């Protein structure tokens, strides 16, 4: 293409022609672009479909360094999958936004979006314009959300020791790798969230819930600590392992005498000199320790290290100490105990000390690992869930599962309405959309029908993953919903013997389901509007 070329001259004066590289650009337009986009996105949706529900499969994702994670969480699978296709990335983002916003339902949302796109593909082939499909989907989405809100039931989150919250957390955990211990973990989640929840503002500050993992032990050894845990130990092995009624000074200055800096020389010529220096050093340490003790402190938390000499003196003075505490942890301790971070020894005063009911060292099995637990903090309600598990993979996955369950409990504190799981909400919404489609006079009726069909993918996937006949099971349950006029009938994945999800206590937060429908529809609409994809060669795979 000479029109896009340029004549140039190099340093030696030789002319050359600079041409724009046309062949390197790839461009898809119109229906071709729509189809390619939809295919890519639904391929992503297919990969997570089999991991839905209590009987869903887990995925193993091998990272670029050969590190392995095993997970069932949709957002994590997609995040780690290293998706290259630009449109497929939108689905990854979709799952992430559900994760950020709600925290649970990240697999479901991608499956719904995939199904909506598949439906759109059929309609495009029939000749309906993508924008018409988008409007139809939007109409259908508001009907679906309305129906889901209609069938929601309000639960009393305080009744019976938060039983309703536990049931919802159990549903969230039931489909995860840790499902064997869901009762215990659900209890921990509810206790943790309620401990930090601000019930007057109906919100939960997740910064106050720390989830720490420690490899070793069993999953059932996971427990809740009403305080903070830091990965440190007391500096001297003979210091007491427990400090009751702790008053701690939090230091950012090193526990050592001032050192000569580079430009100064210390002239020690005789044993006498050396002794003198030693005595000065000792005196220095002693005044420091005395200063701390005078302030009423009985535990030293120090950002820096100190040598054996200082360590021994601290031990002799009966002043337990912790050294090399990182900046972030130091701040956490300061916030939780109400102490001030002190940069100089001279500045330590009684009111700058942090207070805690008990500080103790905990050990694990036969390993040398120890952790420091600070409980009964003065200023903060912060809690820590200490997750145990046979290996790093289990611990990591358990942490992710706890996050989902915590989010689920938080959502119910914000809005205590629940909707049935097991695909019941989707089927009820599907029936409502279908009947609205029958009333619809415009061409939108086709896309509304497609929307209803897409919603059915959830119960079908749940049934399929549980080894049941997907269409058969869905048809039976849907029939049941119609005849009994009870929208709480869903797929009995665990073969408990009843399809009533209220009886099975399988329910999820209403907010989560509505957000799934809304976000999925939004992204699908966006994908349907793209009709021109221009990619430079180096990004094309
Ligand atoms: P997500 O990441 O979307 O939460 P999950 O793999 O956790 O995906 O699966 C959640 C789906 O499984 C929800 O639709 C929920 O209703 C359903 N589910 C969970 N537990 C049960 C159960 N015991 N019986 C039937 N359905 C269940």
Automatic annotation (TrEMBL):
The record, for InterPro entries, names: Chap_CCT_epsi, Chaperone_TCP-1, Chaperonin_TCP-1_CS, Cpn60/GroEL/TCP-1, GroEL-like_apical_dom_sf, GROEL-like_equatorial_sf, TCP-1-like_intermed_sf, TCP-1_chaperonin
**Example of a GO MF term:** ATP-dependent protein folding chaperone
Say if the entry is tagged with keyword Chaperone. yes
GO cellular component terms attached to this protein's record = chaperonin-containing T-complex
Q: Where in the cell is it found?
A: Cytoplasm
UniProtKB keywords: ATP-binding, Chaperone, Cytoplasm, Nucleotide-binding
Query: What domain of life?
Result: Eukaryota
Question: What PANTHER family does its record include?
Answer: CHAPERONIN
Family classification: Belongs to the TCP-1 chaperonin family.
The name this protein carries in UniProt is T-complex protein 1 subunit epsilon
């Amino acid at each position: 293409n000479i029109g896009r070329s340029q004549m140039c001259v190099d340093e030696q004066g030789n002319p050359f022609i600079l041409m724009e590289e046309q062949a390197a650009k790839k461009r898809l337009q119109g229906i071709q672009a729509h189809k390619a986009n939809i295919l890519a996105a639904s391929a992503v949706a297919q990969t997570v479909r089999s991991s839905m529900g209590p009987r869903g499969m887990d995925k193993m994702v091998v990272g670029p360094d050969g590190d392995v994670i095993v997970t069932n969480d949709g957002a994590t699978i997609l995040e780690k999958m290293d998706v290259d296709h630009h449109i497929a990335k939108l689905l990854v983002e979709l799952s992430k936004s559900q994760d950020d916003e709600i925290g649970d339902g990240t697999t479901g949302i991608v499956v719904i979006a995939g199904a909506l796109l598949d439906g759109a593909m059929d309609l495009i082939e029939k000749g309906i314009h993508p924008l018409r499909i988008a409007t139809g989907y939007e109409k259908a989405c508001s009907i679906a959300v309305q129906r889901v809100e209609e069938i929601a039931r309000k639960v009393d989150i305080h009744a019976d020791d938060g039983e309703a919250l536990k049931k919802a957390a159990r549903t969230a955990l039931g489909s995860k790798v840790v499902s064997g211990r869901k009762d215990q973990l659900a209890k921990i989640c509810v206790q943790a969230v309620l401990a930090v929840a601000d019930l007057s503002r109906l919100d939960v500050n997740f910064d106050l819930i720390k989830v720490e993992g420690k490899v070793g032990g069993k999953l059932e050894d996971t427990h809740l600590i009403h305080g903070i845990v830091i990965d440190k130990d007391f500096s001297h092995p003979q210091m007491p392992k427990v400090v009751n009624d702790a008053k701690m000074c939090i230091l950012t200055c090193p526990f050592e005498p001032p050192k000569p800096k580079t430009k100064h020389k210390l002239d020690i010529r005789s044993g006498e000199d050396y002794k003198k220096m030693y005595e000065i050093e000792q005196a220095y340490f002693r005044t420091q320790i005395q200063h701390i003790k005078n302030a009423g402190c009985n535990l030293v938390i120090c950002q820096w290290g100190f040598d054996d000499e200082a360590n021994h003196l601290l031990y002799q003075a009966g002043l337990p100490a912790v050294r090399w505490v990182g900046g972030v942890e130091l701040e956490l301790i300061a916030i939780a105990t109400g102490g001030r971070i002190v940069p100089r020894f001279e500045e330590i005063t009684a009111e700058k000390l942090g207070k805690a009911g008990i500080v103790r060292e905990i050990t694990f099995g036969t390993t040398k690992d120890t952790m420091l637990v600070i409980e009964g903090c003065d200023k903060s309600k912060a809690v820590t869930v200490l997750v145990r598990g046979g290996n790093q993979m289990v611990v990591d996955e358990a942490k992710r599962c706890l996050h989902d369950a915590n989010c689920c409990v938080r959502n119910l504190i914000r809005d205590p309405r629940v909707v049935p799981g097991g695909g019941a909400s989707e089927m009820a919404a599907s029936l409502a959309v279908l009947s609205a489609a029958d009333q619809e006079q415009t061409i939108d009726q086709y896309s509304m029908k497609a929307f209803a069909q897409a919603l059915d993918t959830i119960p079908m996937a749940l049934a399929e993953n549980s080894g049941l006949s997907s269409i058969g099971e869905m048809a039976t349950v849907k029939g049941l919903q119609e005849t009994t006029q009870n929208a709480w009938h869903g797929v009995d994945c665990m073969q408990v013997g009843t399809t009533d999800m209220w009886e099975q206590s399988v329910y999820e937060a209403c907010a989560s389901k509505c957000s799934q429908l809304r976000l999925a529809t939004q992204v699908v609409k966006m994908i349907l509007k793209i009709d021109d994809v221009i990619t430079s060669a180096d990004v094309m795979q």
